[in-house]
Structures are given as C-alpha cells and as structure tokens.
Amino acid sequence: MTELAHLPASATGLGLVALLSIPAVRTFVLQTRKGAARDNFYQDRDGKSTPEAIASFSNRRPKIALLLSSVIGLATSVALSVVVTLDYAQHKFCVETWLNTASWILIQFQASLLFAIHAPVEVHDTGFWIFLSCLITGLIVSIQTYAAIGDFAHRPDVALILHAVNIGAAVVTLLSSILIPRRPEVFFRDEPVDSQWTTSVLSRGTWAWPRALMDKASKHGDLEERDIPQPDHLLRVDEVMVTWNSQNKGQTLLRDLWTVYRGRILLQWTTTIIRCVFGVIPFWVMLNLVQRLTDRGGDGGAPSRELCGLVVLLGLVSMAEQWADSWVSFYAINMLMMPMRAQLSALIYEKSLRRKNVKSAEKTKEGEEEAATSASSENHEADEETPLLQSHGDGNQATETNGTNANPSDSKKNAKKTEDQKPKDSKSEDTSFSSRQAVVNLVGIDTRRISNFMAMQFFIVASVGKLTFYSLFLVQLIGWIPFVVGILAWAVVLPINTYFSKRLIKLTAKIMSVRDKKLAIVNEALQGIRQIKFAALEGEWESRINGVRDEELGATWTMFLADVGIFGCWVVSPIFLAAASLATYALIEGELTPPVAFVSISVFKALEVTLGALPELLTGAFETLVSIRRVDSYLKGPEMEQTVSEGPDVGFEDATISWPVDEEVPDEGRFLLKNLNLTFPAGELSIITGKTGTGKSLILSALIGESDLVQGKIRTPPRPSFLERNDLNAHPGNWILPGSVAFVAQTPWLESASLRDNILFGLPFVKSRYHQVLRVCALKKDLDILTDGDKTELGANGINLSGGQKWRITLARAIYSRAEILIMDDIFSAVDAHVGRQIFEECVSGAICKGRTRILVTHHVSLVQSKAKFLVELGEEGVLHSGLASELAATGVLQEIKKHEQTPEEIQEDEATGSSTAVASEAASTVETLPNEEETGDDADSDADAKKFIQDETREKGMVKSQIYSAYIKASGGVPAWLVCVLIYVAFEAGNLARTWWVRIWTGSGDSASGLSMGNTLHPQGLIMPGLTLQDTANNPQLLVASSHARGLTFYLGVYVGLSLAAGIIGTIRFWWAFWMSIMASKTLFRETLGNVLRTPLRWLDTVPVGRILNRLTSDFEIIDQRLSMDLGMLVWHLLSVGCACIAASMVSGYVLLPASVLIVVAGVVSKKYLDGARPLKRLESTSKSPVFELFNATLNGISTLRAFEKTTAYNDKMNQKLDIWDAVTMCIWSSNRWLSFRTSMVGTVFTTIIGFVVIFTPGVDGALAGFALSFALDFTGNILWTIRSYSQLELDMNAAERVIEYSKLQTESQEGQTPPASWPTSGKIEVKDLVIGYAENLPAVLKGITFDVKSNERIGVVGRTGAGKSSLTLGLFRFLEPRSGSVYIDGVDTSSIDLYTLRSRLSIIPQDPVLFSGTIRSNLDPFNHRSDAELKTALARAHLIEAGEGAASGAATPSGGQGNSNVFKDLNSPVSESGGNFSQGQRQLLCLARAIVSRPKVMVLDEATSAVDMKTDALIQRSIREEFTTSTLIVIAHRLSTVIDFDRILVLSGGEIAEYGTPRELWEKEGGLFREMCENTGEPSLLREKIYGGK
C-alpha cells in the first residue's frame, strides 16, 4: 500500500466503524423505548431455557475484558496520536493516527453500551459488530505499523512501542468481543439443544462446540443416544416442513428444491466465487517470494522486511483460505444437505400416508403365451413392465412383484429378453416402485444421494471458478499461445470423458433398479423367514438373492470400469495440458525462469485436481438428477381420493367398487362389486358373509376409503377432525366420538411396542375401560402367561404372539378406541368356539359396544344371528341377499344363508349354549369378573422394567478391531491381493517422485535465470480458485532454471512426458485394482452374511427387526461396495507420499524434520480426539437409521389401519422424532468433521509459515533451493493431513464392515448330521421320549419330559390351553428348539442326528398364518419344477381352489361372473405378489394346503390351516385332508374340538406336560379327565359324543 493510500484507508475504516456502531445504538434505543427490564426467562425457536440454565449463564467476563482492552486501545491510540503530532517530522501518518483514534472512540462507545443491553442475544450480536469494527481498525493500524517500521535494523522508539501495544489491545478486544456466549442453554422435548447457536462467535467460527461431546466420548469410551443433543430449528423436521410448505412451488421436484433453497445456494455460490477470486493471492505471494530469493542469491544474508512480510502474508492468507473453505463446506451441510434430507424424508413418508394402497402383482408375458407349457421344461418369470390388470379376492392386496423369478435357476430365454419384447409405453425402471422396500429405498438411497450432493454441489462452482481464474492467471503468466495449445491438448480426452460420463449415468439408473429389486426380494425373504425355514428353502432363497446380488455387483463393476475411464482422463488430461503449455512457452521464449516454472507447474497441479474433480462432480450431479426424478415420480403418484361422502348413516348408493389401481384400467380387467345398495343400521350389528373370494373385505375397505369408487356413492357419518378429537383430553364422559371409525383388518397389524401401547394406540389410559376391554377380548389369562404382562414388548407385527393373540389384541385396540363405527373383518377365524362365543357375547354384542355401529365379516352366521340387525350375503355375482335379519329369517333366506356358510354340526355348535371356559389352544380368560377387578392390576404409571423382546442393536466400542481389518482383507482377496495393491501404489508414488526429480534435473542443468520483471509477467488481475494454498501448489519439485542447453528441450520434455504418462497409467491401474478388490470383498461378505442370517436360530430372527437387517444388507453394503477399498488405498497412498516427502525434504534441509515431528505429534493428538468421538457417533448413526426404516416398513404394512383410525398425524409426528434423532447424530458427525478439518488445516498453515521462515533465515539458500525445499515441505504437510483424514474416514467407513462382519459371524443352526435314505420317512412313525425343550438357556423349559408315540399314518389331534406347549412341540419336531434332553424318533431315526435340511424338507407344515412368495402360482406350489401342470391343477382342485377337470366353473375360493372376476387359479402362471397380498387370507391358506398336497409328505403338521375360509369350503377341505393324506401321519393343532374329535388319538397338553393321551373314546370315558371337561364346556357335548361314538 502506497503512502498516499493510508489516509483514504483510515477515513474509510472510520466510516465503516461508524456504520457498525449503528446496530448497538439502535438496540439500546429500542430497549429504552420499550422500558424492557432484565428478563429471567428465555425462549426462542430452538427451545426454552430452564431457571437453572439461566442462573448458570453469564457473559460478564468477556464484557469486562472487552471494556478494559478497548480502554487500553483507546488510551494507546490517543498517546500515539499525541506523540506523532508532537514529532511530525520524524513520524508518518499523523492524520491517519487521529482517524484511528476516532475509530477507537466508537469501539469504546459500543463496548460501554454492552453493559446497558439486557437481552443476551442482542449483547452477543453487538459483540460481533464490535469484532468487525476492531478487525477493520486493527488491520489499518497493523498496515501503518508495517509501513512505519522500515526494516529490522530500525531502532524501536516510543511510537513503535505504542503501535505494538495498540495492536495487542486490538487483538484482545477482538477476541473478547467474539467470546460472548449467545444465550443460555435451551431445551426441546426436555433435552438440551445443540449448542451451535448457544455458544460464542469464536466457538462457532472455529467449530469448537463439538469438543464437549468428544471429551465425553474420550472419558467414557462411548456415547449413547441420550448424549446427543436435539437439533436446532434449522434442522428440525417440523420446522423445515413449515419452510417447505410456505413456498410457492412449481411443477417438478427439482424446481421446488430450487425455489426453497435458491437464496442459500446463491449465497454459497457467491461466497465460493469470491473465494476463488482471492485464491490468487498465494500464487502471487509465491511468485514474489521465489523472485526475491532468486534475486538475493545463495549468500544473501539476513532476510529483508519484504521477505518476512511475504511469509507472514502467506500464513495469514492460507489461514483465511482454510477458514473460508471450512465455512463454505459447513454451510453446505448445515443449511442445505441436512435440511434437504429431513424435508425429502418427511415428504416421502407423508406421501406414503396419503398414497393409494395399490397392491397388485405383475403378469408375465411368457406366462400368457405359454400358459399350457409344462413347468418342468420352462421357467416363468414376472415381467416388470406389464402390470396385472386383474385383482381378485377379498384379501388385502399386496404390492407388485419385484420382477424376480421365484425359481433361482433363471432360464436363459427369460434372462435374454430383448427390448422389442417390452411394451413401448412401459414405465421406466427407475421410477417403478414395485414393493414396499422400493419405497423405503427412496429415503435410504435416493434421498441420501440428493442430500449428499447438496453438500458437494458448490465444488462444481468452485471447480469452474478455479478453471476460469487459474486460466486467466496462466494467460498472464505464460501468454495466450502456450495456454491455448495446452487447452487443445487437454481437449483431446474430452470425447472419451464424455463417453464414460454418459455411460455412468445410464449405469446409475440401472443399479438403482437392481437395488430396488434386491431389496424387495431380501425384504420378502425376511418377512417369510419362518416358512422358508420350515420348508428348508434357505438354499433356494440364498441362490435367488445371490443371483440378484450378482446382477447388482455386475452393474457395479461395469460402473467401476466407467469410473476407471473417467479417472484415467483425470490423470492424463493435466499431463497433456502441462506438457503442451510448457513446451510451447519454452519454444517461444527460449527459456523457462524459476518464478514462471514454479508458479506454472503449481497451477497445472491445481488444475489436475480441478479437471479431475469436475467430471466426477458432474457425474454425481447426473446421478442425483436420476434420484430426484425417482422421488418426484413417487411424490406425484396417485393419492387416496375422497370416495366416502358424508351422510346420515353407513351405506352404499348404486355403488360399484374395486380394489385401488394407480392407472386407468378397463372395467373388464378389474374385480368389481357392482350396483351396491346397502344401508347398515346405526348403533346395530350388521353381518357380511359369503364364500371365500367374493369381495367381503372389499366392502369393508370401501367403507374406510381404501377402494376405488367406479360409480355411485359410499356414505358414512361425518368424521371429527384431528383437532376436534383432542384425544389426549379424552375421558369416560366424552369417550365415544360420533362418526369416528375403528378397523380390524383381515391380516392383524400390530406396532412394535408393548401390548398395552398397542391397545391404547395413543389414547389416554383409562383404567376401568382398559381392564374391561382385556376381559371382554379374552386377554386376561394371556397377561398371566406373558413374561411381563401387558408391558411385554411385542416383536415386529406381533411376531412373538400366536395368531389368536394377534387377533384379540387388534380387536381390543378397536374396542378400546373412541370409535362409534366398528368395521371388523373375520375376528372368529383364529379363536376357538368357546372363546369366539365369549368375544361375541361379552364384546361384540356386549355393553361395551352398545350403541356403536358394528359391521362384521364372518362365516359364523349362526353364532351372531341372534344379535344381528342387518345381514348381507355375497356371491359370485355380487350381493345375493341383504336385509334385516328378522325379515330374512321370516322368509327362510337366513336358514339358506347359514347352510351356505356352515355344516349342520357347525350350526349346532355355534347355536349351542353353555359356559365358555377356556380349554383349547387359543383359550384365554374366563368371563367371570374378578373381585374388584377394575381396581386391580397395573396402572398407567407403573414403571416395572419389562424385558425387551426386540433387543437393542449392538454397537462396538473404541477402535475398529484388527480382526475386522483382517476379515475384510481376507474377503477382498487376501494378503497377496493387497501386496499387489501396495506395489501398485508404491510404483505410482515412485513414478511421481521420478517425474518431479527429473524436472529438477532438467531445470538445474542450466545457468542462473535472467531477472524477471514482475510488472511484465503477471497482470494484477490474475485470479485463482478456492481450496489451493501452497499446500496444493507444491506437489512437485519445481523448475529451477530452464534454458536451451546441450541435450535440447525435446529430450528433457520427452522424458518428462514419458514419466508422467507412466505415472498416469499406473495411477489408473490402481483404481482398477482397488475396485476389483472391492467387488471381491462385497461378494464374499454378502454371501457369508446372507447365509448366516438365513440359518440363524428362529428366535434371533424373531427378536431382530427386519429393518435392522435390511439396514446392514443395504446401506452398509453400499459403503463396502464403493468406498472401503478406496479408503484403504488412499491411506496407503498418503502414507507413501509422506515417506517420499520426508526423504526428499531431508536431502535439502535437516531443519525441516523438527517442524515435521512437531506437526506429527500435534496432528496425532487432534486426530485421536476426533476419532474418540467420531467412532461412537458413526456407530450411533447406523443404529439411529434403523428405527426410521423399521417405522417406515411398519407404516406401509399397516397403512389401511392407520388411516382408518386417523393416526396418520400421530405417526407422522413419530417419524419426525425419529428423523430428528438421525439428523442430530449425523449433524454431530459433520460438526466433529469440521472440528478436525479446521484444526488440521491450521496446523498445516502454521507449519507452512515456520518452513517459510526456516527457508528465508537459512544462509546459502537461493531461490531455486528454497523453492525446492518449500515445495516438498508443503507436500509433506498436505499428505500428513490427508493421511489423518484418510485414516479417520477409513475408521468410520470400517464401521459398516464391522456391522456386516458381526452378522457374518452369527451363531447358526448346526448343519451337520447324517443324511438318511432318500425314501425316509417311509412309515411316518413318531416316538417322543422324555423330551425337554426351552426357548433359551436362561428360560424355564416349556416341554417338561413328555413321552408319546404316533403310529404310521395315524391322525393325532393336539389340544390344550394357551401356553400348554403345542407350538413348542411343533418347533421341537422341526428342531427349531433343540432338546435339552430326550429325543424324537421318526421311523426309528433320531432326528437330532439328521442334518436340518433333510429333516425339514421331508416333513411339512401348514401354518395358521400362511406365507406366499412373489412369483407365480406355479412357483409357490412347486419351486423346484418337479411336477407337471396336471399334478399341480389336481392339487388346486383338491384344495377347492378350482373344480376338478378342466375347471370351466369357478371354485369356491375365487369369484367368477365376468372377465375381471374370473378364477385366476386356473392359470398356473397367474402372478403372486409380495407376501401373496393379492389374495385373501382364505385363498392363501388354501394355496398352502395345495402346496402340501403336491409335496405329499409322510409326516405333516397342521395348525388350524383353514381358519379363514367359509364353513362349507372348510368342510370340503377337512374331507380332502382325510382323503388325501391317508398315507401320511397327521399332527393337527386343534382350535375346535370338532375338527379332531374323530381322529385316531388325542394328545392333551397342560403346562408343558402330557395330561392325557388316548383315543377320543378312551378320553371321553375317563371321568374327571381334562379332555372330558373340555368337551363338556364347549356347549356341544352331545354333538361331540355322537361324533366320538359315530352312531355306528
């Protein structure tokens, strides 16, 4: 700065300080006007403070320090002004000094006002304005002091001392002003809020506030979720959604995101561009420094003031650059990435609560063309492109099939479908959401990709800015012609780069589609794991999943190859640019001077990073665009329409209804119920009955708005709004809400919560009502059996409950609710007759339901007819009969309906009277009220610790163990592969070292350089991009002096280019090798993990939520797929770079080693502190994600129930809280990362400055030698910092491998054992001897030494109360529970000696809760393609799904009466959706029965396998079972004594022991026996007696 410029600078500084004083004055004036006194209360958008926090808050110390330092600053400034004025001739800047004094007066004035301002935030903000004022004044004073010093030989005088004291006072004032805390600690949800906006400016500006969390982690060795603070309002989901909804949004998600975030993005881009402009300063400093050292020569003596000033300036500029880089990065995370992730996650979840619940499967094209082809010769694959137009059955329709073959051996014909076979108007793969998991992926993968890109997008602007400003700098440095030649050389690789980039975009979309498919099939396997294990299908499903996984890895490898191509372009293009530019410059100028050489090579190195990063960033942008389109497609998907109109009652007017579809479908292609005209009486019980598959559940779905209304009207009374409900203040006086609805779905849905919470479902605990509900729903005795009573935690969807318990809890939820209208699917199918009667009499028609409108689907017409007011019967053509029950009885129609639904015996059973004592498998409470029952039991505040059924996710502590690294290295190819990898990296680093050493030889071969005119070489408008300090510019030894000499330019340049190309090729190979090892590791670990998960004991699978397993098989494997090998490679690379830099630097100056050692120690301390906190935070993030996905999955499974209960708002709030926790942990990770990055950058900057001083103070160092030493020292600095970052990232990413390897080491069921003969079992004889079984070692035995035998082909009925051990016996037969003692023999072979696969595959079970898998009817009946079509159709006919023969008429299970309502079971290629959701519960049970008929097992277990079918079909099936399995040994767990009363023998269990065992006659004749008592208490003893004696 010239002397003439000092006066304007001081005047401008005074003006700026005056402007900065205005906020303080304004704040004080406003406070005075309001007369505001000091407040002892604090609250803002982040939260509310507590009295304790307010009492502990104090900003007094920094204010006092600020006041004192400003007084000293003002005093010294006044004294300095007086001294300068008195000795004006000797001192400069008289007027300027008085202007600075005026600035100090204003600073003093602002400091004084701090004590008058009360509000802590206003004090903090005023302190920031003082900081800016002091910064301006301090800079002006420092510059004037520097100008006044002259040189170091100048003798200090009073003025200089006053200058120094004044600058010191300015520094203290500056620091004191930004040490003022902003506010007292605030709390949200009774937990402290993140202190980013609580702490001081200095703490925020240096990212110091995460230190407290890291200290806690260091002290305790771990962190818990409770240690994580709540996010502030900028990240809180509720708040960011308010911001989103307040904006006027456009037509696409991309435009909407721009609308919401454009202000923040533009601010960030502007800051980034300014940062690029000022980035030229380090190059300018380097140019001056090298030039002056060159001019000084090797014996230049003491450094000049200019040299010292340049080194100091270099340090200050580097520090400012590092801070600016850190701020821009953190701003991208805090203001863009995290809010966007929260918003998109919330938007997708909210959409899922509103989106149509479309559940259809997809039809195969091959299936249509080859329906008659034998399955033994053809596989049938579901085509993802063709939606199934038919929907059928009255079951909850499930999601579309994931498009994978149910058979693992995909046929080549199907695998090679050509594009012309696909419909031209089919949906794009990347916007298909064919399963629930594909929807969850939008949050798990797409949203994460979008938000991660928002954290990086400014680098595109930075890269373009760098490219622009560096180019301008180069043009002024070397001229237009060399620069243009270099750009043309670089442009040669652009077409190749473009090709690979386009290919990468296409591959990204493909990978997303394949991942959706993989996740859908993994999710389906986990959901149906019990059936898979019962049928010993683990191997088949493992092959099926691995097939899709191999497809994913194949696409990933192809994408990696495209990446290698892009990396190759990255490495080669800067080499072309540098070689071409330098060669042209040397040819034109005839020489290459040291300043030009150093700076130009440094710029080329920087451009290497820029040109390499830009294609990657643009590729990331295109990938993000794919994800944005996927999310946009989902958000624009069809929503539930308002199909229900308000009316005085519940009913239909000329209504035609159908299952929901998401596109226009002709009526002929849909299952329709037409012309419905029904009115259900208010406050009464209405019954809907009919054959299986006639649309009963569809009517219920229509009443809750979950169907499509083709025409007409659906009426219900108006529902209360969410605000009108005011559930939290409900009490018995206002409990029932007119118009409100409760729904009991056909498939029970439960929360993963306690039993009590499932019943309350968000309502207040009313003790009397709660216990009444438990009693009438027959749940009292269940509480006695369950470990922790009603506090027992239920697994995912009640996995640890029996079928009957699930039903009764879902019923209890509806009965406890405030609903006036109860809509219930068949609630009697899973309970015994006596329990069913109790529920009907005490609950459905009892006092608790009096006055409530009840609409019930059931086959038990005789049971409910006495209390029914209205009755509807559905048939294959729609409504057969409807009307008042009394009128139908008078006309004889009611009797006909009962005959349609039940056999005469079942009618008598239902109509029988008698006590309802609990006796059978689902028996529960007796109906008698206990004394003072309403006053006993747990109350709402009881806080006994209940055992958790769902175990908390485990987290490791401390460093990642060496075993994890060993396991990963072994999986990725072992030690040999990694030795090759290290050798490649060594070769690459050696190539870089050789290239840079050759440059030194080349430039050192000439004589000294000619002088360089700074004014002619560099235009003052030279510009540079962000992120590049001297650390970045000095990655090569620099050119010292170059001129034409003996060997010639061509020789040196040729060797340089050759070495560069060799390094480039090796550098490209290292990426290829790292990617190859990554694929190897991913493939190996996935196979090990999947194999173990499928073969773990059933209890482990029951206690671990599906979402948790999916998280490890998806998010964790994505890191393993794409990052871990690169992390390890980067660590090896930077370690080798550090070694090379140390060797090279020590060859020049030994002084470099001392600062290097200091740097290593300081950096090590910083990195240790960071890793202490980062490790547990990363693990916490992994575990905090799982609840988000678990809740998402649960919501999608139970969406109809949630909407019917109007719980979507509550669930949305619950999701927001879980997202807040996840976001808070993630934000802590990023804050800690900034803490590390800023401090390591500062360490590097200090080291750079130290090296600069070492160089200029060391005698005998000329410009060339100094530049060489400085460049390597700076290279060492950059690499040691990147080594720390690489290791830190490796540790954090290794957490994914740690979690995956944990699952790959799970304890599995023993697969050892003998293989019996292929014909085993031949007779089916079973012997059980002294069998003792328990669920876990620490739990008591559930079967206590039972002994019995079953003869060949004998039919055994197993009965007993809940908890008697019936299910445990089944698990013992299949060896899901290993005997503690005793044994089970089948055909004389001890089952414990047989391998599990053989045992389970030779037995068969039909569970009460049937499980089907996506694919076709054929793939579900015969997954191995061993049977012909004729055999499969015969099995379907015997299961009464089709009629015998060709099946022209419809079977009992499926409707006909139109093309859309045709019997799909006639076509073996008819698709089955995920979990068989496009069939009703009854149809699924029948299909499972048909599957058993196909397999013809010698030993078969049935668990009331036909509970959900109508009575007539049930009777036919029972007859089929007796006829079809005459050569099989049958063990039937009985829910109705009438179903097993004519069996060969009855096994009565009680308390895990055999109470009785014998023929029905023997047990009947046993006076006082348990079986006789059970028969007497059913209400039908005469009927059972008649069956026992047969009347024969």
From TrEMBL:
The keyword Nucleotide-binding applies. Residues 931-943 have a biased composition (Acidic residues). It is found in: Membrane. PROSITE patterns: ABC_TM1F, ABC_TRANSPORTER_1, ABC_TRANSPORTER_2. Residues 358-432, 901-945 are annotated as: Disordered. Residues 393-409 have a biased composition (Polar residues). The chain crosses the membrane at residues 6-29, 64-86, 98-117, 129-149, 161-180, 265-287, 328-349, 453-473, 479-500, 967-988, 1049-1073, 1152-1171, 1236-1257. Residues 410-430 have a biased composition (Basic and acidic residues). Residues 650-901, 1326-1576 form the ABC transporter domain. It comes from the Eukaryota. Its main location: membrane. Pfam families: ABC_membrane, ABC_tran. It is a multi-pass membrane protein. Keywords: ATP-binding, Membrane, Nucleotide-binding, Transmembrane, Transmembrane helix, Transport. Belongs to the ABC transporter superfamily. ABCC family. Conjugate transporter (TC 3.A.1.208) subfamily. This is ABC transporter domain-containing protein. It comes from Bionectria ochroleuca. The lineage of its organism: Eukaryota, Fungi, Dikarya, Ascomycota, Pezizomycotina.
